[in-house]
Design goal:
CATH architecture of one domain: Orthogonal Bundle
CATH superfamily of one domain: PGBD-like superfamily/PGBD
Number of helices: 4
Distance between the termini: 61 Å
Strand content: under 5%
CATH class of one domain: Mainly Alpha
Largest sheet: none
Number of strands: 0
Radius of gyration: 19 Å
Shape: globular
CATH topology of one domain: Muramoyl-pentapeptide Carboxypeptidase, domain 1
């Protein structure tokens, strides 16, 4: 009986470890590198906006590696930034609205390492 419990426990631990490895890791943006705005302050930001909220979002979006372009930290929400934000939202299953609100801020602060949506040409 005791051996059966140990075998069951061992199998459960192995399964848990294997599942843990299957979960894609998340790259956390380093907030102190993007210090234009407090991480507690997350204003709604949309195309055409300017200011420190936009600059913070630009900086955080640059933590994404790979094909997406790095944005210039100029505090202007232009068409290049709109395209990138919509892509980031799609990577996380969010509506690709281009509006940076609570859920989008969350993914900007905690970007995925990989996105299986190709970046639009």
């Amino acid at each position: 009986m005791r051996q059966h419990r140990l075998a069951t426990l061992g199998a459960a631990l192995c399964t848990t470890a294997a599942l843990g490895l299957a979960v894609p890791p998340v790259a956390a943006a380093v907030p102190h590198q993007c210090s234009y705005l407090s991480s507690a302050s997350r204003p709604a930001v949309t195309f055409g906006d300017t200011g420190v909220g936009v600059k913070q979002a630009q900086c955080l979006s640059n933590a994404w590696g790979g094909e997406p372009p790095k944005l210039t930290l100029d505090g202007v929400y232009d068409s290049v930034m709109l395209k990138k934000i919509e892509w980031i939202q799609g990577c996380h299953g969010l509506p690709a609205s281009g509006i940076i609100e609570d859920r989008t801020w969350q993914v900007l602060y905690h970007p995925a390492l990989d996105c299986y949506n190709p970046y639009p040409a």
